[in-house]
Structure formats: C-alpha cells, structure tokens
Amino acid sequence: MEKGLLELTDVTVRFAGDSGDGMQLTGSQFTNTTAIVGNDLSTLPDYPAEIRAPAGTTYGVSGFQLHFSSNDIQTPGDEPDVLVAMNPAALKTNLSDLKKGGTLIVNVNSFDSKNLRLADYETNPLEDGTVEGYNVIQVPLSQLTNTALEDTSLSAKEKTRCKNFFALGMMYWLYSRPIEPTLNWLNVKFKNAPEIKAANEKALKAGYYFGETTEVFTTRYEVKPATLPKGTYRNISGNEALALGFIAASVKSGLPLFLGSYPITPASDILHELSRHKNFGVRTFQAEDEIAAVTAALGAAYSGALAITTTSGPGVALKTETIGLAVMTELPIVIIDVQRGGPSTGLPTKTEQSDLLQAMFGRNGEAPVAVVAPATPAECFSMALEASRLAIKYMVPVMYLSDGYIANGSEPWKLPDVDALPEIEVKFRTEAEGFKPYLRDENLSRPWALPGTPGLEHRVGGLEKANITGDVSYDPENHEFMVRLRAQKVKNMENDIPELEVRGDKDAELLVIGWGGTHGAISEAVDRARNRGLKVARVHFRYLNPLPKNTGEVLRSYKKILCPELNMGQLSKILRNEFLVDIEPFNKIQGLPFKSSEIENKIDSILGGNNGRK
Amino acid sequence: MADNKVQEQVQVKYTSKDFATKQDVRWCPGCGDYSILAQVHRTFPDLIGIKKEDIVWVSGIGCSSRFPYYMNTYGIHGIHGRAPAIATGVKVARPDLSVWVATGDGDLLSIGGNHFIHACRKNIDLKILLFNNRIYGLTKGQYSPTSEQGKQTKTTPYGSVDYPFNPISLALGADATFVARAVDRDAKHLQSMLKRAAEHKGTAFIEIFQNCVIFNDGAFDDITDKKVKDEKLLFLEHNKPMIFGANKDKGIKLDGLKPVVIDLSEGKHTIDEVLVHDEHDDNPARAGILINIDKQQDLPTPIGVFKQILKPTYDEGVENQVKQVTEKKGIGDLEKVLFSGNTWSVN
Fold first, then answer.
1. Residue B32 counted as domain residue
2. What is the CATH number of the domain that holds B94?
C-alpha cells in the first residue's frame, strides 16, 4: 500500500501508561532521537511519587509529553496532538488533554474487564462513545509484541515488558525518525544482558515495520529540522545542565567542587550526575540528613572548596539555620532548591514556584542571601557559573531556585565554547600582615582565609561579630551596623548583574512579568497575543535578590502588569512591596506548568475585546 | 619530598602560649572546662608534626562550644548539634587538616546525635571531645541526655523519667575506631588521652567527665574525688589486668559474661583470674562487657582507652577514589564532558 507523507511544522506527543510500562524511557528515547534529527523540542515528564503504584490504577499513570518542531519552540505544548495510551487508566487520566480531533493510539489488548474496572470504567470507552471525535487507532500492542518475541527464551512477563519498544518503533515510523539511535542505546545499556537487548531490538523493529505494513496508518508524517543557530547541540535536562554547570564553575574558578546532599525528589539526579565526575576532583558527600549536607558544605567552604548543596523545598526548611550561619560567617555556598509542590511533603514529583519567599526570607533574624533562578533547562548551566561567581565574589550564600519542570524537562542546548566561558576570580588571603577576618574590600566582602595558611588563624561563628576584627561583639551599635552591612553586600550585587530586558511592544498596554521556569509559557503566550495584534511586552527575572537595577523603572512604565506564577503570588508580593506598583497576580497551583493558552487567555481578558489592538 | 616534610616538622616548636588567644575566657570560675582547655594548650605543642595553621577546631552550641575562641588555630563556632557535620565538610574537602570537635552532652548526644553516630560509622578522621557535665549549662540547668534518672532540674521538678545515654556505649555501638574516657580533674591522664586521640587516624572520641560548678556541681565527686577515686575508678591499660584500689588489690573478673570484682588481697583469688584489657580487640562482645562495668553494677568506672582499632577512614576513601578515577579516566576535560552523548551539528 502506498502511504502518503505529510509535512508538519509542529507536533506534540504524549506517551502515557502504567508506572511500570517504561513511559519515561520511551519518552526520553523519542526525545533523544528527535534531537538528533534536528528538531527544536521541549519535554514534560509527569510521573507519580510512587515508584510502582498498583498496576492499572489511575494514580499509577506515568506520562511523558514531547513537543517538537521545525520552528523555534518554548514549551512542551499545551495539548497533545497524539496520545499513546498503554492502558485504560492512562486513557482515563489523559484523554481530556488531547486536542479535539487528535490522534489516539491505544493498546487495545489492555482494555480487558480487569483493567477497565481498575480505571473505573463501567463500559469500554473504546466502544461506548467516549473516544468519539478523535482519530482512534487501536493496536494490539501486547499481542504483537508477544508474537514478535515468540522464538525468544524470555518469560511471558518479560516479553510483555518489551511492548514500550514496540510502541516506540511504531511512533518512529509514524514520524519518520531513525531507529538507530535507540539501537545504539540498547547496545550500551544491555551490554551484559544480550537476550534482553535482542528482545527489545526485535520489539522496536517489529513496531517500526508494523507502521509500514499496517493499514491502520494511511499517512506518515515528517517534521523537518529546525533552523537553529549554527553550532553543536545536545539535548539536556535542567538537572544535567545544572550539574555540568557546577563542574564548569569548578574548572573556571580552580576550586574543587564539594557537594553535600541528601537524596530528595526532584533534585537527586544532580547528586547522581556529579558523583560520576570524580576525575574533576568533585567530592560528593551523601550526608545523613539535609542539615549535615549543608553544614558539611559550609565546612568545605571555610576550607576553600566551591561548596554547594542540592535539595528541594522540604530540605531547604531543614537547612535554614545553617544558611543563617553562612550569612553570619560570610562564607560562599550555593544552595540549590529544585522546587516541588508544597507545603510539607506536598507533591514530590510535581512542579511549583512556591519557595521564593522561603528563599528570600525563610531564616531567623535579618539574613539576606542572593537569589537567582534559571529560566530554561539549558540555562541551568550558565546560572550555575553565575551563582558560583556571585557567592565567591561577595562571600554570600546564594539560593539557586530551579523547579521540577525545568529540572526534568529537556531542550536542545547549543554547547558553549568552553574557552569563552568566563573565568571566576578567586582571591584567597595569604598575607598575614594586617590580616583581620572581617576586613572589607570595595564590595564589602571579607577575606577568604584558608586553614593551612600560616599567620591567618582565625575563628568564625554564629555569634555577632565586630566588623573588621571579627571578635564576638554584643555591642548594640555594631549589631545594627553589621545587619545593614550584610544587607548592603547583597544589594551591591545589583551593579554586577544584567538589567531587565523588555521584550515586545515599546508602547505595550500590558507588561507580563515572570521568573524561573514559566519563561517558555509566558513568552509563547505573549508572542501569540502580539501576533494577533495585542500590544504586550514581557520581562523575565533571573535575579530575584537583588533585583535588577532598572526594575522600578520598567515596572512604572506600564499601566497594567500581569504576573503569572505557580504559587499564590510570591513575586507580585515582593515587587508590590518594593515598588508600590499595582501588579495583577495570575496563579496556578496544580503541580503543573502553565499552558501558554492559559496565559494568553488571561492577557485577552485583561486587554479585553479590541483594547490594545494595533 | 618526604625528607623535607620531616625536617619541617622538627622545626616547628610551640609552647602552650602559642595556642592561647587574646580572647578573655568566659566560663564560670571553677568550671571543668578550664582544665580541659589547659590540658589542650599543654598537649598541643607536643603533637609533633601538626602545625598550628593546619588545625581546625569546630564546635556547636553550649558552654563547651566556646572552645574554638580560645584556641589560636583555625576555628568554626557552629550551630547547635552540627559540629561533627561541619567538621566532616572541613576534613573531606581538606584531608590535610587536623580537625577537632569540642562539644557537650546536649550538643552531641541530643540535638546532634545523628551527626555523631554517622561520623563514627564513617570513620571520618575527626577528634571529638565530649565535655560531659550531665546538664544543660548555657540554658541554665535543664537535664541532659546523660543526666541520671530521677534528676531534679528546672524542667524536671519531680525528677526526670528519662534513661540516660552511656556515651561510650553509643560510640562503640556506632563503630568509632577510638573510644576513650577521661576526667577533667586528672590533668596527666587527660593529656595522655588527648595525645592518643591526636595520634589516632579515624574518628577519635573522648568522653571527658566535666564538672559544671553552677548547675551540677559535684556530679562526678562520688567517683573522682581524691578520697574515693582509687576505689571508684578503673584505669584501663592495654594488655594489663584490670586492677584498681588504693593497694591495687582488686580486680575485674568475668563470671560468665558478667564482670564482677574480686579481692586479690586475701589469697583466694590470683591476678591470673583478672580480665586483661585489649583495646585493639574489635569484638563487640568485649565492648558489651566493658560498657557494663559501671557504678550501676557496683563496679568501678573505667577510664582510659576502651578501644582503638585501625581501618581506612572515610576522607581517605574519598580522596583515593578521586585519585583512582582520575588515573583511570584522566583529568576531567570540560569540553569532552559537555560535548559527550548524542550531539548534532547545525551548519
């Protein structure tokens, strides 16, 4: 049968199945191959906190969404064009997101009475009209996989587990992707398990050939490579980029990297990644708890390491007292908070931006720290260098706010010219003559004097210190002086960080402001609104403390300001307080990122009817 | 290289004054901490090969934790309970440093218990001095995790119902490689314990019975007072029988697994029956017997080195791993790492 080939610019696919179905693996394989093909892309893994929730249940469904395009894209897509549902529970929890008229590929073998019951379907949704209006493609995935693996020695259970590779092969065919990258990956991954490797290869190929021969697919699609700027690219997640960024900061500062960490979702991948790179002199310390993780980092900082700790919101809560000690002892540490849904244990695997106020103010006493937040997965790399630079130059702890969405999401990353990365200047005090532990340089930073240096023996600690001498001081005037000095140190960074860049219409009716991982959704929404003639501008904060120098000026230049955040309005609160401007918060607290359409609709409702149209 | 190092070591000659700071010492007059500080000042010049600038004192919160301010070395006065964790960071980042922890019974065994057992478990090369006065001093007299049951304090006006920790038992249970006990008022013995700890490679723990003159005065008098100490203290010495008493005529004998006192003066028992101390024995059964020798059992309280064994330290292990991986993979090449995996070019 001759099949048509249709060129598309933009596709969003979602794989959904049981936690044990290998959906994250399928999604990441499809992503890697798509990256190699040269599409721009953005991903959204979405999985439950339970490792293996009971099979077939709705709460055990794991999903992976991928948006790829021949154009420049910013988000993992609002609505999937294609949903691959491996079982009824996956269909139940994901169908409402599928675009009207979208393609639904289901593993029809899993729609038996048991799985239907587990998914709370009284009747079969494939037969009762539930999926009407969609382009439904029913594939006996389990059966076809088992048949393909008939002559292998695998058990029935092991055979069934290969069905995700069958589905992957089928999707590769459907979107004209090569299967070689996955074959290569299987070669490495199952080097020591030749039978499993062979079975997965077979399943992958069988899926691919099924696409070619079956009559259920009449058309095959193609998405041409995106015209990205010249360079070498790799696909990268935020957590990977962050880990590599701190290795780069270690190389560029000449300081050995010390990571004190305690495993926590969604930050553990950073600890995993850095543990692999010991040949960079990286020392990873998996501590007994969150407190030990950060206090060990503090000890390492005192001793001259580039010291960092990685965690999520609950971990930051535990580290709070030590961060205060770092403020008081004026030692450079970077605290990485990969934010997740809170409060308390909250939604461990879901994203949120609700730790901004914790990062800013969550300590006893007046304890200012610098706060930075990367905007995209790839930006986690450069922000690691920047956080390290600020910590070291100003002898101040830096809070680095990532979030579950950019930590686990991925995008193509144009690899930097290593030689062109900025050096991080480190000045250790070595001269004993005139040394005082709390001497000040032009930035108000105190000297970093390392143990092992003769003549610089000194004590630091949590008790208030007299300026310059560093002696313990209970003097009232000195305390106020030191509180103000520590605040000024952070404030001084404003002369050393980029100003806000306004994107969009100069005479915009509305300014949309964001920070951190909402960057993609906001910029897509603003672009779309502008394409429809609305006059909108946007700014994105990568520095939350201190704020860029022109923040007040920018905010006061617009009549209306909208601030979408995945929290109850934390940045709006800070900005209103600081600049006395009216900001309309737009909040989503569902553990999910914004869809750009949600922000676009909000922009429409503010500007109303034709208001603001060119 | 090695020769130079030796020469350098010989050249460094300190006196106890070199380790004192200009800070006024602010403990209460008569506090046992003064004696501990004095013994440290006296001992440190004798720690051949350790230069003053290579020493870091780390502490938590409490009276004992003011210690770093009085040592003219590097120092961090940390936060409550976290001294072993801060010290771990110092030692792992800089294995060349000699890292000491000054802590108290509340700091180390209550709020910081977790860090203590994990430092012991990992055998991090730290010297931990526990100033055990069995009371919270700096917060003005609440019972601590080493206070005896029934103790009346501000928070336990009707007597505490808690059972106390035996710090030695805790350290042995957590597999510390050097475990010792000393008494603030016995200067010579304390000095020898400090030296032994300094020489040990691995987690070295010394519990020091320390008198709090304000809130728990005389807590150890029943065993450490001159008049009774010969009968109440048992000085542990490696390879020597466990004998005590003014006339050295009492010994510890094992009755099954139970330690009992025998009288060597009457001719009924001989020295051969007395348990011989072996500090290098890492059999937990011995530890179990040793921790049961205490006054609750009407036995003398042992002081000295309970255990000293050698095994690779955590910091050494981390260091070696860095070296081995670097040897195997070569010194990290940033460009290579960034450009690894599946890359593609856009021209």
1. yes
2. 3.40.50.970
Domain boundary among A175, A193, A223: A223
Structure tokens at A536: 């909108």
pTM of the model: 0.94
| Same-domain check for residues A562 and A602 | yes
Q: Which of A283, A415, A454 sits opposite B53 (nearest CB)?
A: A454
Note whether A299 contacts B87, CB cutoff 8 Å: yes
Has residue A148 got a pLDDT over 90?
Answer: yes
Judged by a CB distance cut-off of 8 A, whether residue B20 touches chain A is no
**Does residue B249 lie in a domain region?**
no
Out of A223, A257, A290, a domain closes at A223
- B11 close to A (CB below 8 A): no
CATH of the domain at A294: 3.40.50.970
Model confidence at A97, in pLDDT bands (50, 70, 90)? very high
The answer to whether residue B26 sits within a structural domain is yes
| A/B interface, count of CB pairs below 8 Å | 210
| Residue A296 pLDDT | 98
Q: What's the CATH code of the domain at A122? A: 3.40.920.10
| B347/A230 CB distance under 8 A | yes
> Are the Cβ atoms of A233 and B345 closer than 8 angstroms?
yes
**Distance (Å) of CA B67 to CA A15, B23, B146:** 60, 11, 21
Instruction: Collect all residues of chain A within an 8 Å Cβ-Cβ radius of residue B339.
Output: 232, 234, 415
Q: Where are the beta strands (DSSP E) in A76-194?
A: 82-85, 103-107, 135-139
Looking at this predicted complex, what is its ipTM?
Answer: 0.95
Rounded to a whole number of angstroms, the CA Rg of chain A reads 26
Does residue B83 lie within any of the structural domains? yes
Cβ-Cβ contacts under 8 Å, A457 against chain B: 52-53, 72-75
d(CA B228, CA B233): 8
* Helices (H), ranges, A412-547: 476-492, 519-531
Q: Does the residue A284 lie in any domain?
A: yes
Owning domain of residue A144: 4-223
Q: How far apart are CA A247 and CA A535, in angstroms?
A: 42
Domain match, A197 and A257 both: no
In a domain, A458, yes or no: no
Give A244's contacts in chain B (Cβ within 8 Å). 337-338
Indicate if the pLDDT at residue A74 is higher than 60: yes
> Tens digit of pLDDT for each residue in B88-107?
999 999 999 999 999 999 99
pLDDT tens digit sequence for B278-302: 999 988 888 889 888 987 778 999 9
pLDDT of residue A613 exceeding 60: no
In a domain, A35, yes or no: yes
Beta bridge partners of A288: none
Q: Which of B56, B82, B342 sits opposite A32 (nearest CB)?
A: B342
A24-72: pLDDT as tens digits? 999 999 999 999 999 999 999 988 888 778 899 999 999 999 999 999 9
Are A279 and B90 within 8 A, CB to CB? Answer: no
Please, which pLDDT band fits residue A1 given cuts at 50, 70 and 90?
low
Kindly determine whether residue B326 and residue A415, on different chains, have CB atoms separated by under 8 Å.
Answer: no
B130 phi, psi to nearest 5 deg = -95, 115
Is the pLDDT at A459 greater than 80? The verdict is yes
Burial class (CB in 10 A: 0-12, 13-18, 19+), A515: buried
Minimal C-alpha gap between B346 and chain A (Å): 5
- Cα–Cα distance list, A581 to A29, A574, A588, B89, B231 (Å): 47, 10, 22, 45, 79
What 8-state DSSP symbol labels residue B109? I
Same domain, A134 and A257: no
Say if residue A190 is in the same domain as residue A282. no
What is the overall mean pLDDT for chain B? Answer: 94
User: Structurally, how many domains does chain A consist of?
Assistant: 3
Please check whether residues A239 and A284 belong to one and the same domain. Answer: yes
Chain B contact probe: residue of A37, A179, A459 with most B CBs at under 10 A: A459
On whether both A206 and A295 belong to a single domain, the answer is: no
Give A283's strand partners. A258
How many distinct structural domains can be found in chain B?
1
State residue A611's pLDDT score.
45
- Nearest CA to CA, how far is A115 from chain B (Å)? 38
Q: With an 8 Å Cβ cutoff, is B195 touching chain A?
A: no
Asked if residue A318 and residue A397 are part of one domain, the reply reads: yes
Q: Are residues A164 and A271 in the same domain?
A: no
